[in-house]
Write a structure and sequence with these properties.
The complex is a heterodimer of chains A (393) and B (100). Chain A is an alpha/beta fold and 393 residues long. Chain A has 2 domains: 245 residues, Thiamin diphosphate (ThDP)-binding fold, Pyr/PP domains (Rossmann fold); 135 residues, Rossmann fold, CATH 3.40.50. Helices cover 41% and strands 19% of the residues of chain A. Chain A is globular and about 70 Å long. With 100 residues, chain B is mostly loops. Classes of the chains: A alpha/beta (393), B little secondary structure (100).
């Protein structure tokens, strides 16, 4: 039986972790993710979990400790934000190339500089090529549900890759919303026991981890790693299906909101999808055929499926909550435009950079984006494809 | 799962590698044949050898086996052709292209 509660995103993820009861949780605090290890430490102190909680001296160490624990055979994770993620850069790649199924609860925050503690996606977008599975949430419920599904995906024998469960800093992490929680036993049974085939603490078979790969092996190693990522898409779908049977909440690679017959659409990641849905409802009432594609799985990138979902759309705006400094737009824009090109799409596409450093996005802002898309579709010309939303000109 | 490391030559495809490049099992470096990395090999001239055994301890890859106080043939499965043994030999009992 599900329990209704009202929780912040950080509390929701911490509760998911209590229900999962991982083996090792090293952490170093950084706003706005600090609450996750903070709540979890209280669960440890109260004896509600038997996790080894390690307060380390930096994020470089927290990811290193999580990697060490995972190599040893433990189910491990850490949590961080922004510069904390940047400081574990080196280890991110090692976790992925060592094929360690550990988790990272990421609360998205702008990278310095200028120094800023509020939401944008520059931290995780910078880590998009690190070989981690990346999953994003629109709200607290999704952050909780994604965390519950995380280990089932990352530990799957065809995948065995680390997973980043992302939510928007403050907007999702600190805002309290209604939420439906699963029973502890339900989560425990759904996630199951971690039983690695090979691990350092196995006395039957000693093991070497992370051996040096000379030029003769490095490329084969990277190609081997890519295979896990290829399998991840199907596993994400399968796990979501099982989760739906348990919770009644359905997830896919992305969410399509009133997209079926839409003539113009927005593609985005994270909490502003909620704002965009309000704008869509308002415009639909006025007879406008507008829709949304909200990315859940960003790495691996479901390019074919996205292009298919957008195949009937005349004009699309791809919203990036991170700068790419390519003079072309942001990372999501580049990925979606490449997907459209590969599918020989005729859709006119523009890429907006928005919401940097916590810049607010209102329903009217998104209505404005749809008005621009309507004009683009009418003109048959996208004009400047690299745009900013909500910046003072 | 033990890793069959002897199959990990430079012709191994990506499918032959273990996930995460892990090496399961202990003492596997003997089975990992690295000799194919080298471009030149030392040659043992047995009639010049006085069995002084100066060559054996200088080999970085333990490729000069000693049995009953006498050195034997080179282990070319692991010799990388560094030529240190050539320099160590006082009796011209080891020759290698490019090393005097």
């Amino acid at each position: 039986m599900a329990k209704r509660d009202r929780l912040s995103g950080n509390e929701a993820v911490a509760i998911a972790l209590r229900q999962i009861n991982p083996d090792v949780f090293p952490a170093f605090p950084i706003t706005p993710s600090t609450e996750i290890p903070q709540y979890f430490a209280s669960f440890v102190a109260n004896g509600q979990v038997d996790t080894e909680f390690i307060p380390v001296e930096s994020e470089h160490s927290s990811m290193s400790a999580a990697i060490g624990a995972s190599s040893a055979g433990a189910r491990s994770l850490t949590a961080t934000s922004s510069c904390g993620l940047a400081y574990m850069w080196e280890e991110l790649y090692i976790a992925a190339s060592n094929r360690l199924p550990l988790a990272l609860a990421l609360v998205n925050r702008a990278l310095s500089g200028p120094i800023n503690i509020n939401c944008d996606h520059s931290d995780s977008m910078g880590a998009r090529d690190a070989g981690w599975i990346q999953m994003y949430a629109e709200n607290n419920q999704e952050a909780y549900d994604n965390m519950v599904q995380a280990y089932r995906i990352s530990e799957h024998k065809d995948v065995r890759l680390p997973i980043m469960i992302c939510q928007d800093g403050f907007i999702t992490s600190h805002a309290v919303e209604n939420i439906e929680l699963l029973e502890d036993e339900e989560v425990k049974n759904f996630v199951g026991e971690y039983a690695p085939e090979n691990y350092l603490l196995n006395p039957e078979c000693p093991m070497a981890v992370g051996p040096y790969s000379i030029t003769d092996y490095y490329m084969e190693a990277k190609r081997n790693q890519a295979e896990g990522m290829k399998h991840a898409v199907q596993v994400v779908k399968d796990v979501a299906k099982e989760f739906a049977a348990l919770s009644g909440r359905e997830y896919g690679l992305f969410e399509e909101y009133r997209l079926d017959d839409a003539e113009t659409a927005v593609v985005m990641i994270g909490s502003v999808a909620g704002t965009t849905k309000d704008a869509i409802d308002k415009l639909r009432d006025q007879g406008e055929k507008v829709g949304l594609l909200k990315i859940r799985l960003y790495r691996p990138f479901p390019a074919e499926e996205i292009a298919k979902a957008l195949s009937h759309v005349k004009a699309v705006a791809i919203m990036d909550r991170a700068e790419g400094y390519s003079n072309q737009g942001g990372p999501l824009g580049a990925d979606v435009m490449a997907a459209l090109y590969r599918a020989r799409s005729q859709a006119l596409a523009v890429n907006y950079v928005y919401g940097l450093g916590g810049r607010d996005v209102r329903v009217e802002d998104m209505e404005g984006v749809f008005a621009t898309l309507k004009q683009i579709a009418a003109d048959g010309d996208a004009g400047e494809m690299y745009r900013y939303l909500g910046v003072r000109e | 799962m033990a890793t069959d490391i002897s199959k990990l030559g430079v012709k191994a495809t990506w499918k032959d590698l273990t996930e995460g490049m892990i090496i399961a099992g202990a003492g596997t470096s003997k089975e990992f044949n690295t000799g194919e990395w080298s471009t030149a090999k030392p040659e043992f001239i047995e009639e010049n050898c006085k069995q002084c055994l100066l060559c054996t301890p200088v080999c970085p890859d333990s490729c000069i086996p000693v049995v009953d106080g006498k050195r034997g043939a080179f282990d070319y499965e692991h010799c990388k052709g560094c030529g240190i043994c050539v320099k160590a030999c006082p009796f011209d009992a080891i020759k290698m292209e490019g090393v005097n």
